[in-house]
Amino acid sequence: MPLTPEMERVGVTPALMKTTKKMTCPRCGLEFSLFQSRAIACKGCSKGAYGCNMARCLRCDYEFPIGGVLVKSKEREKQLATYMNGILDNYNKSVGKSGRR
Fold first, then answer.
1. Largest CB tally within 10 Å, which of 2, 20, 71, 75?
2. How far, in Å, CA of 38 to CA of 24, rounded?
3. pLDDT 10s digits, 24-78
């Protein structure tokens, strides 16, 4: 989906759009986004501080790499993971949360 001028005006980026793309858990088949995974299933995991390149299923807790699903290279995988972690860190700081489960 291309960014509209309205989306750009409010700060939506191509990286943010990738985090909302649906992926499917290879174990149980649940569809969810990286954004949901990081905000719910990965909350409080210490790997998140290091730009973890994994997604965790909301239903069965299975971890799998985001590469191939959302991005095609290891470098882009790391960039997307770091970007997503930054969004969640900023949110947690803005509402006074610690980021732990």
1. 71
2. 15
3. 999 999 999 988 998 888 877 877 667 788 899 999 999 998 877 777 788 887 8
Domain segments of the chain as ranges: 5-94
Residue 51: Cβ within 10 Å count: 16
Question: What pTM does this model have?
Answer: 0.72
Rounded Cα–Cα distance for residues 31 and 8 (Å): 27
28 contacts 60 by C-beta, under 8 angstroms:
yes
Structure tokens at 34: 């990286």
In the numeric block, the tokens 């969640």 are attached to: 88
Six-digit token pair at 3? Answer: 């960014």
